[in-house]
Amino acid sequence: MTFNIKKAILALVSFDLCKDKGHDELGTFFCSQVDQVLYTKVSGRGSGTYEAVTFMDGNTSRCDKATRAWSGELAPFNEPISLHFHGPLHFKQVAFYQPNGDGSYSRKGFYHAQSQTSEGITFMGNFGGTAGSGVFTNAFGNSLSFVNSHGDGGAADPTILADTTVSDTADFSMFTDQKCDDGSCGYIQPGAASRRFPGPNRMFLFEFAMPHSPPNADGADPNDKPALWLLNFRIPYTQQYDKCSCWDFGCGEFDIFEVVNKHDEKALSTFHLNPLGFGDPNYFRRPSDGPIKVALFMDGNDGGRVSVKVLGRSDGARFGGSLSAGEVSELKKKSGSGGGVVSEYQINWPAVGV
Questions:
Q1: Which of 312, 313, 302 is nearest to 344 (CA)?
Q2: Which one, out of 105, 157, 298, 305, has a CA that is 20 to 30 A from the CA of 278?
Q3: Which of 325, 292, 250 is nearest to 77 (CA)?
Q4: Lowest mean pLDDT across 59-68, 186-195, 204-213
């Protein structure tokens, strides 16, 4: 597999790219357009704890939690994760890879829209109790469930995402196709659940477009803010959008490619380790006029590194079943498309307990 990555690069620390260019837009700070953001010292805090959900009762609103310690490479992002998406978005393909030990990586999950191929992947969403999978309770709302082909409603069985632009009402997630029924996934609300993507070292390749939402028929302003992010696996298994999860206690979210302001052409990346949050104000150009390819790698070496890199415009090639050591090295290299501007952002964690 060949990646069209220009060699001429400009690697600067985030601060340098913000000199004389930082500005506020609707409460969000932006600096310069870049092709890659490389986060370093992601493991810098070393260890910590969060409160994990251990029991939920939808009849009484009971939500029990217990303290869980985390440590190690990329912690707590070394724990398994799930991928999440919000429209408007046209996903063309995604591949998940893990290292083999010799520098090469093997593909463990794959989705290709045009051929309607799904290998090792399950699409899900918070639509429990609406279409034959998952549950709904007044206390906790809709649990995780299978999702329909447009990502905007439930389904009774696993369904492949259609090769189309999903609307700004679509909100769906991606897991592996392995059932999680042996207790290893922690507490799970009753209903559908699939295993999450393991770590700590992993690579995802994405191909997608983020076209703008068309006007609403009723004249209301469309929610034109597409996003791609990952969560600690315990969050969607419990209550993704409210208090009965570990999100408020710092188990981890990483916004990979998020349009923060409606109708904007800029996308940011941000770590959330509530109450802590770190994100580079240097931004990616939103692919509103056609699909691009993006690489995400998470590497526990050298203090923990996480990179989001735009590989360039889509070339029609499928992501391969494996990545050679040379291809992996090229993907991890500081380089980008369209001139290759790279922002290096070192995370300065406060001391534990601060």
A1: 302
A2: 105
A3: 250
A4: 186-195
